[in-house]
Fold each of these.
Amino acid sequence: MALAVNAGARLDRLPISSFHYRIFWLVGAGMFFDGYDLYIAGGVLASAIQTKFSTVPQNLQFISLTFVGMTLGALITGFAGDKFGRRFTYQINLLIFGLASLAAAFAQDMNQLIACRFVQGLGLGAEIVVGYSTLTEFVPPRTRGRWLSMMAFLVVAGFPATALLGYLIIPAWGWRPMFVIAGVGSLIVWYLRKNLPESPRWLESQGRTAEAETLMQSIENESAGGAKLPPVVVPAPVPKVAAFDMLKPPLLQRLLVGSWVLITINTLIFGFVIFLPQFFLRQGLTIASSLAYTLVLSVGSLVGCALGAYLSDAIGRRWSIIGASIVTIISGYIYARFEAASDPAIVLSVGFVLIVAIYVQTAILFGVYTPELFPTEIRLRANGICNTLGRGATVISPFVVGALMASYQLPGVVWLMISLVVIQIAVVWAWGVEPRNRGLEDVATAKT
């Protein structure tokens, strides 16, 4: 029945057209607000603790419960997305974190804000899983790395956006407008995304071949623009897999790779990057100066994602991940050595390189590599499990970071990062596959 439609092969040979850009921007707009909401914690918590709205333990609870929500959201969405479809899940999750963001803006105390943040986390964790996985199933293999890395660019653009808006808004009006922006923006995108199509690959995998065929013809007509399309290269039949196959080789190794790299990158971002304003406050900087430093470093996140978009298709996913990991280790060590001197030139220049290296990995690991590792039938479930473990690690990382800061200052945090990245290099080298220039059906059966 799968051969009757060949949705994957037909999508992979399409020329880039307005269809691909429409999918990219509709999914990407929601992903941007997901990133904005993710990074909002840095400036908000620094302001909340300075104005006595919160305490340090409450800030740690805020971050931790965000990740509890994201962990549950990623897991639930993985199973819901494979069961009910991509379209259903990416609309529900956006509605959840949009409404919760508006509620957070009117929280009367820190406990209410923490509760709202937990609900936000459910939607945030879901969006990451379904957004990347959905785009993966639409774009052609020759440029898939670039498309997905640029999707990560939109997510990460939330970092400088929150840093800039925080710098302009928080000192004058406090942290509440930051949540209003997130809520209103998310709900606007939710309305616009109603016309986003279902994935033909998913429809075909569910045996809904008539719907898949009708949708494929519509997509082909839009993409062709009256021109003749390239012939369909029918791939060898790919055996269907079930969820239980994730516990057997070779999918088990892929699940381990995907889980570890997401544990590592989540800890780098949410155990280091998101704490930057508070690290700077500990050095005696004012809230305005702290947010200004963070804004400068946040530009490196965009540079890193853009570089990841180029490298993922130019030299491949594995070498890009390993190379960026090595740069992270070197620059992290230098940053820890010289940060205590409080020399702005050193802190900002070395910190910039470190942020770039972290976000090369962010673009590839979140956006490109992990969704590519698994067959269509279980893509969201497997990606959801990897994200669940990645987010689960960050439930405790704020407390670990807090303890390391108290005992060993910033060098202790950096050494934690370096240890995780060293293991990441070994795992990707030993078990990672290379999806560059391969169709998803080919990657599903690849050995290396």
Note: Residues 18-214+241-445 form a domain with the Growth Hormone; Chain: A; fold (CATH 1.20.1250.20).
Amino acid sequence: MKNIAVIFGGVSPEHDVSIITGLIVLNSLDKTKFSPIPLYVTREGVWYTGEALTKLSFYKAPNYKKLTRVNMCAGDNYLYKFKGNKRLVSLACAINCMHGGNGENGTIGGLFDLCNVPFVGTSLYSGSMAMDKCLTKLSLIGLGVETVFGTQILRDDFYKSPQKSIEKVMAELNLPLIVKPARTGSSIGIKVAYDIKGLELAIKNAFRFDDKILIESYIDGAKEINCAAYKTKKGVFASECEMPSTSNDILTFEDKYLGSKTGGAKREFPAKIDKKLSDKIKEITLKVYTAFEFSSVVRIDYLVKNDKIYLNEINAVPGSFAYYLFCNKISELTDLLTDLIEKSIADYLSKRSNILAFESSILSFDGLSLKK
């Protein structure tokens, strides 16, 4: 029985959404093959494990005394008890369910890599490129993938000279504009600006969540289309396209997570769009997924207007693992998670077969003789 760590929560505005994703994955793993180990990261960054973490009711009134505080050590695939540094359990693999922050920027993938634990999630490289919307845009331009034109501003530069920063934006772009924190998701901190005053307020709001923001042209009337992809030993697969709709300027946090019955967005799946358009979106999704060297489930969001496709955003750890785009029932999610775990372990073993050390005579070198 392989011990599979499922890590969720985290220091991120998307903390609560991550809990839901973590619980879905924890409770969907094949218990005949795997022993799920919940790893909950608090809003302050403290790691805990314990059976109580598998129940949603725990998070409504958390009692950390029921849990065990844990950590990990580089070079060792064990989970350690924080007090006393006692080994608790070895990990065969870890699944990343942390949205935003260290979950999506590649940091957590780098940590498990240091600890020699196979990892279902983005690597340090792919995560950092996908999490930062400005870096994503640069990468897409290099790939020849269409994206909305935009510009970035740093917090320090803006507050040194707000007027100069706004003049720079207006010299490059025309209103209306959409203002986004560069490294958040779930529409948090995003606003549409229709005039200069609104632009200034939107910029200040975005800087509450990040020290770098992205400002783009707002495409009025564009439809949002989502498409996800994942990779197993059999290859890379793309989902059918989904089309969420909203009465707001953009898809809000509430639209994405509260559901249509509670005021959220309505979702059309499969999206009723032309097959050529659907096929093109799936083609782009597979191209970007492969180029970014993703390995887990990734959802890519597009804006479409007059059949022109703009890649809007990459979600390296999508809410609920975007299982609803691939699975009609929980048993199918169980099979998908098994495939992802097995692929992750196979990739890890392949990487470990590389030559990771190089013997040389450099340490016998005495150094240069320098005159005083």
Note: The chain has eleven helices and 18 strands.
Amino acid sequence: MFTKKNREVYMDYASVATISKSVSQVMKPWLDGSLFGNPSSVHNKGVYAKEVLSQCVSEVRRIVHAHSNSQVIFTSGGTESNTQALHTLLHGVKDGDVLLTSGIEHPSVKAIIDKHAANGLKTVELSYTDDFKIDMKALDELLENNNVTCASIMMVNNEMGLVVPIKKLISKIKKNNPEALVHVDASQAPLYVSCSVDACNIDLLTLCGQKIYGPQGSGALWVREGLGIEPLFIGGKQQSGLRAGTEPMHQIVGFTQALDDAYKNRDEYGTTMSHLQSYFFDKLTTHDIPYIHNGNSETVPLACNVSFPDCNKDSEYIVSFLNTHGIYVSSRSACMGSVEQESHVLKMFGVNHANQVRFSFGEKITTKDIDYVVSVLVTLAKK
């Protein structure tokens, strides 16, 4: 049996957020048997489930500002959505075509691109400036010298909280090639930035429930109308034949509620989290704990990556030490697993892996929690 610690502070929201009360409420009747039914069944239970499923599709379209005949595919989360998007994006790639990506992508995107690159796909990456921003001049030169026909770009990075100017980026890509298709991984974005596919001219959009206070194992892939989609699961005709398998209604309604909450509360939520991050930095300074914030002025507190240059302990020791005091943080993306593996994102930016930690802010964190976290860091500094 695990012993409950006297105090716990969860600061790993970028890995998975807690399920919100509103999400739990909409999921409950689909879990306790009050509501059930296969949307493919023709009896009343099935018809009602199909109606709810259709309402969820319409809600997702509304929230991302999409047209009514675009596709929404409910998935098991960001990794599945990214995988299906990349398979669709790369299906029509021909010799001479170039895929544009970046060095900050999620492993589920990077792994697929790396695999295709090894088999002959030509890829190019965005360049970044010293202050963690995209070098737009270098991008112009890159587009001028390459036949970029597709791109896959993350909107908000999960390790450093970097925000990519997606609208400006896509505008440049499509000005160079109006037929280019662009996939955007917005798994970490809805709580902080707009995910308007219409305003940004996005072709495929990845969304993930567990990052926005929805259920784990939930997500969606939005696809612009007229774009042929490559299904990952075949057999049944569910979701217009784009994802075989009976739809998990409890997951779908929970995800949709979480996305709606994120859309409605984004400004207030972002302001609150920014205040908490500023308070954290102020407390570190007050207690004379030297730190480096690995980010820029546009970085969101979803992933507050901090290095402690004067600490003689490595990242894993710091994470473990905080854990023994009931403080839960991470040193890298959870998708890299528990093995010691360098982050390709931090490596690209030259961030010192030795003593960096990701503090990820969320709705249950208070200033008193931060006071406690800093007091433990003070203890660590004396070791």
Note: The mean pLDDT is 93.
